[in-house]
UniProtKB/TrEMBL annotation:
InterPro entries: Bact_response_regulator, CheY-like_superfamily, Sig_transdc_resp-reg_receiver
Matches recorded under SUPFAM superfamilies: CheY-like
4-aspartylphosphate: residues bearing it: D51
Signal sequence annotation: none
Pfam families according to UniProt: Response_reg (PF00072)
Name by which UniProt lists this protein: Response regulatory domain-containing protein
Keyword Phosphoprotein found: yes
Domain Response regulatory: 2-115
Gene3D superfamilies tied to this protein: 3.40.50.2300
Keywords on record: Phosphoprotein
GO term, biological process aspect, one: phosphorelay signal transduction system
Length: 120
């Protein structure tokens, strides 16, 4: 499974990328929206995993762009935990919405389903 992981926090990006690779994913990372756009232009992905609060934009806008450009599943990883924010993310195109701190087992389950479920 080809995964694009978009996370601005260096330690979180490194740890999640390592764990995803150990689970058999081929993980490409991006630290912001600009980097993610470049990766999406260069490669095809099965899954986008993205933070919502990025230094140069919003994961909500990114998922909309990504889904217009590629047929992929999308998983939000975020500190935004209200029902309204979750609903906004799902309406925008995220197939699964996970709040930080991330439970890696939940993320693995979402990947098994390629993100095809909403997680409260």
């Amino acid at each position: 499974m080809q995964v694009l992981l978009v996370e601005d926090h260096t330690d979180t990006r490194t740890v999640l990328g390592t764990l995803l690779n150990r689970c058999g994913c081929r993980t490409v990372t991006a630290k912001n929206v600009r980097d993610a756009r470049s990766r999406l232009e260069e490669m095809r992905f099965d899954v986008l995993i993205s933070d919502l609060n990025l230094p140069d934009g919003d994961g909500i806008d990114l998922v909309k762009e990504a889904k217009r450009a590629q047929q992929l599943k999308a998983i939000a990883i975020t500190g935004r935990c209200s029902d309204e924010e979750r609903d906004e993310g799902l309406r925008a195109g995220f197939d699964c919405y996970l709040t930080k701190p991330i439970d890696f087992q939940q993320l693995r389950e979402a990947l098994k389903n390629k993100g095809a479920q909403a997680t409260p």
